[in-house]
Design goal:
The protein is an all-beta fold and 375 residues long. The protein folds into 3 domains: 89 residues, Sandwich (Immunoglobulin-like); 80 residues, Immunoglobulins (Immunoglobulin-like, Sandwich), CATH 2.60.40.10; 136 residues, no CATH class. The protein contains no helices and 28 strands. The strands form 7 sheets. Strands 18, 23, 24, 26, 27 and 28 form a 6-stranded antiparallel β-sheet that branches. Strands 5, 6, 8, 9 and 10 form a 5-stranded antiparallel β-sheet that branches. The protein is elongated. The termini are far apart.
């Protein structure tokens, strides 16, 4: 492919009219060449970009491509609009494992073309679709849903991140992206059921197939509280057992009235007692916070708090266990409270959190955990 590199073209036309030779001289402007031509591969397409030359005068552009093994160039597209001096063409007609070259020309109304001053090259990598995320599981919270899934996709070569979608039965909507196996949907409203699926994305933007669908329904109650790690979100890392259902139990991790706060490190998640609290140093394996009348026959809960042996040291917590605290209530007397850890994980910002249920004995000095909030 050969291009003109002159500032203008003189076209001589000889015509005979009225027995006289008339010579017309026509100057055809040579368009300004594209600048800063670049090319990248991502998610199954090649993006060709360039900038307008300083003398650009509204001319269109022609994009040419060829494989490095081809002798000839192929015209693949004409681009007639750019935004803010920046132009883009996306080439989807590509084959994995091939290397392609691209060049872009500005073309005048008269068909005169001026090439970019460089030819750019890109390799389209062969790839294997990332593994499907295993799960997910949805935990219904108060005006929120928390999604979590397994690490099958993350351990594969080239893993980059996940995309979380909301599915309404007829279409889907991207909620967000995360590189952890957890996502907190704060747009979910109480009383409505939401259905989700997750895709894994590799470093080159290739998506996996969709995970199975999973649904959750937020509901207003005192189960499904969530608390953040003190280092990640300190203002939402503290907890105070509340006697009033209108008082929010989540407090700042430095609040002097907190009964505990959440901390995490490489060794796990930690329940750290507050100034007026102590924790029993052993967790209790339970299948529910409270086993009610309709509970399964094998339901296991903790009905009575230990009356002694409490410590003020941080307690390492794990899921599916209940933990008992002895605290000073608003009345200045001793009360017993209990939490049951349902989930430990990370949200889409990679902030560590704990989801748990809780119960609180309103009667001072009574170790029975039957009169409770959240039970």
């Amino acid at each position: 492919m050969k291009r003109l590199a002159l500032g203008y073209l003189v076209l001589m036309l000889s015509l005979t009219a009225c027995d006289a030779d008339v010579t017309y001289v026509v100057e055809l402007g040579i368009p300004d060449a594209p600048r800063a031509l670049a090319v990248t591969y991502y998610a199954g397409s090649v993006q060709v970009t360039w900038e307008l030359g300083p003398e650009w005068d509204g001319e269109a552009f022609r994009v040419y491509s060829r494989r490095v093994t081809d002798a000839s160039w192929f015209f693949i597209a004409e681009v007639t609009s750019c935004i803010d001096n920046f132009c883009l063409y996306e080439d989807l007609n590509i084959v994995n494992g091939e290397t392609y070259e691209y060049i872009v020309s500005a073309v005048s109304d008269g068909g005169v073309e001026t090439d970019s001053d460089v030819v750019v090259e890109v390799f389209v990598p062969p790839y294997t679709t990332p593994p499907i995320p295993d799960g997910p599981r949805v935990v219904g919270l108060d005006n929120a849903n928390y999604l979590t899934w397994g690490i099958a996709s993350q351990v594969s070569d080239g893993f980059s991140h996940y995309r979380v979608y909301l599915d309404d039965g007829s279409s889907s909507f991207l909620l967000g992206e995360t590189d952890s196996e957890g996502f907190l949907d704060l747009l979910a409203a109480n009383g409505r059921t939401y259905t989700y699926f997750v895709l894994a994305v590799d470093l080159n933007g290739h998506e996996s197939d969709a995970s199975p669908l999973a649904s959750g329904t937020p509901r207003p109650d005192f189960t499904g509280e969530w608390l953040y790690d003190f280092a990640d979100v300190p203002a939402s890392s503290g907890f105070q057992f509340s006697e009033d259902e209108n008082v929010l139990p989540i407090v700042d991790g430095l609040d002097p009235l907190r009964h505990f706060r959440l901390e995490s490190d490489v060794n796990g998640w930690w329940l750290v007692p507050g100034p007026n609290a102590a924790v029993y140093p052993t967790g209790f394996a339970t299948s529910a916070l409270k086993c009610g009348v309709a509970a399964d026959a094998g339901c296991v809960d903790l009905q009575v708090a230990p009356t002694g042996g409490y410590v003020v040291q941080a307690m390492n917590v794990i899921t599916q266990e209940s933990y008992v605290l002895r605290v000073i209530g608003n009345d200045g007397q001793t009360h017993y409270g209990m939490i049951r850890v349902d989930l430990l994980g990370f949200d889409q910002n990679n902030d560590a959190l704990m989801i748990f249920d809780w119960a609180y004995q309103l009667q001072a000095n009574n170790p029975e955990l039957t009169q409770s909030r959240g039970g």
